[in-house]
Amino acid sequence: MLENFFEKYNGRVSVCADIWSDHWRMHSYIGVTCHYMDNAWAIQKRILAFRVFDEKHTAANIFRHLRIIFTEYRIENKIFAIGFDNASNNTDVIPALIELCKPYLGGKFFHQRCACHVFNLCVQKGLKTLEQFIQPIKDALYFLWKHPSVMKLWAAYCKQNGKRAIRFPRDVPTRWNSIYKLLARSYEYKDLLVTFIQYHVSHINLYQSHWDACSNVCGLLKVFYTATNNLSGVYYPTTNLFIIESLNIAGAFAHCESDSELHESVTAMKDKWLEYYKEFPNIYLIALCFDPRCRLESLPDYLSVYYEQGLKINYDVDMCCARVKTLLYELYDEYIKVYGPSLNIDVPQTQNVSPSSSSSSSFVNLGYNLLSKNPKNYEVLLHQAPPHIPSLNLI
Prior knowledge:
Elements: H1 2-8, E1 13-22, E2 27-37, E3 43-52, H2 59-72, E4 79-84, H3 88-92, H4 94-101, E5 111-113, H5 115-127, H6 131-146, H7 148-160, H8 178-188, H9 190-200, H10 208-231, H11 242-256, H12 263-277, H13 282-290, H14 295-311, H15 317-343, H16 379-382
Helix pairs in contact: 5-10, 5-12, 6-7, 6-10, 8-10, 10-11, 11-14, 13-14, 14-15
């Protein structure tokens, strides 16, 4: 039984909780998943709960459901971090969960917002400024979806012109990357769509300006598409990848904001991005330092590229790095408190060591480091245009 396993488990777990509504049956549900490392250092994932949640989505009700689930699986004192989307009620429940779970360091790493959800918020914000160009394309595809008889005509028309008939992806605002998939696929069929829609629908007109905007914005959206896919992995670590993907996104902002057609859209995306990631959460900074390709010694370079060349804003990189060093020492001390006696080794005392002292170099591996050998290699991304319509197998 999973409950018995977690009762004996001597590590920490990370959980992710999500609440959503079935608008057709008028029910809401809560799902809770759990990730942890087994004894072979392999990432494991388990679904802890999938339950009806028909009460109001208040912080008190969310806490009650989570407390029941955590207690059932005996993990309430073993949770390192919990991931939520950005609903305000989810944020409001965090203090009560910290009181229940007693996480490391008073909860400095406890609350992790869903990065892909933030990406989607940025995309939706930016696309509002391009609605006049994108909406006609969406209207044309909706016409195909709405009429099965028209879909049959479309299939025959594609076959007649030597193209494989497809059902275009639907745009669902809450579904990550859906608008990118829709625009990318429709662009591949733009010539056929223009003539087909022009013949069958009098009130929808697709002009070259629409497709130009589609091409330009797809180049920008592909950066979010790639980041979302890379950070959506289940059986490999993803937290350490966040800052690397953020460099790519910041690079796309830096390049595209000089484009007159995309400037307004990029500005809107960037403003939304800065609401969440003007300063990186602690957990992402620590995870990057634990990535053997990056490590602590490369952190100043990553942050400098991100702030100075990507976002083009002032930021005290030195102060951030000093804070990260302090957190590393605090984590180390916490680890020794829990696992030190069982290791049966001589444990160095770090409590009285200043993070700014020379002994902090113990956190820096000066051997082979793939990325720190060329610490500015991500600058290249900041001077390259995001690719335009890619050739993707989206079906």
